[in-house]
Hints:
This protein is α/β, with parallel strands linked by helices and 344 residues long.
Amino acid sequence: MARILGIESTCDETAAAVVEDGVRVLSSVISSQIELHARYRGVVPEIASRAHIENILPVIADALAGAHVTLADLDAIAVTHRPGLIGSLLIGVTAAKTLAWTLTRPLLAIDHVRAHLYSVMLGGAVQPQFPAVGLAISGGHTALYELRSFEDVRLIGSTIDDAIGEAYDKVAFILGLGYPGGPAIDRLAAQGDPSAIRFPRSNLSRTSLDFSFSGLKTSVLYHVRGHKGKERTAAQLSPQQIADVAASFQAACVDVVTTKLKRAIHQTRAKCVIVGGGVSANRGLRADLPKLGLPVYFPDFAYCTDNAAMSAGLAMLDLKANRIAGLDLDAITHSEFALTKPGA
Ligand code: KG4
Ligand code: ZN
């Protein structure tokens, strides 16, 4: 049995978790900075790193207390060291290195996107069959992967402009909803007519596995503003009209994701689909993707948005394989995955 402390500070959540044997979550503590960033309608990197400094030690203490363990009971320390905001990453990486060194425990270095995909494993109920298609959808990432295992992952497509969660957040702003916008649009979409407005679906070429959401977002903006000369704002729309825009926007997102997944499944001969990241909490996607005709795994709601349990869980594979990081571990802003296909 191995007990791993995970630390996550890639963006605007300070999180720590204790996970046993890669799947049993003994504790998962997340300190959200949403209120600090809401007035700026997005994450301000400098504010995020300062908040991480204040939060990191109390969050780690809470995770240990919640798991009823002490530092001495830990077998390893895992940290999400990429990709993310450099100032934010540095806080988690420094905390993890300090603990690993003072406790003389192995340090494990985790990629945040790979950890989002691993989230489906937490709880131990899911046994995916490989090859699988991985879909990472969040505020910072929108990408498709071919997985032969959680250790053998290849990037096969990604967004060429906005991430899907970013599009949700921007459309929510256009509609006068709060930040982050994903949950608000998801809620409103349930009350609207998804066929009220036909927003564009950008599929790029006939075979492309890449995504583009900026045209869709602009199209929502033009729809809300109305024709030139009679510019309006969302405040002039009725609650039903706003719900219809939310539902129609969500329908376009779900359509695009479904089309890309069908292509990826066909190209990789996948046996299942693994979804991860903040947008995997979306009810529209959760209702539609199972219609693809093969098993589609979503994380529990608690592990969709940023958390440290996913990193502590995934780290078990590194510990088993003896992939131990050195104390010179760096924080890195980009993901470990790069597109290798021609023209990417
Ligand atoms: O994974 P995450 O916490 O952070 C990143 O790694 O980016 O994802 C946050 C994103 C935000 O853009 C938020 O609006 C979106 O996930 N989100 C949702 C939902 N819940 C969170 N988007 C659509 N529907 C939801 N229910
Ligand atoms: Zn994330």
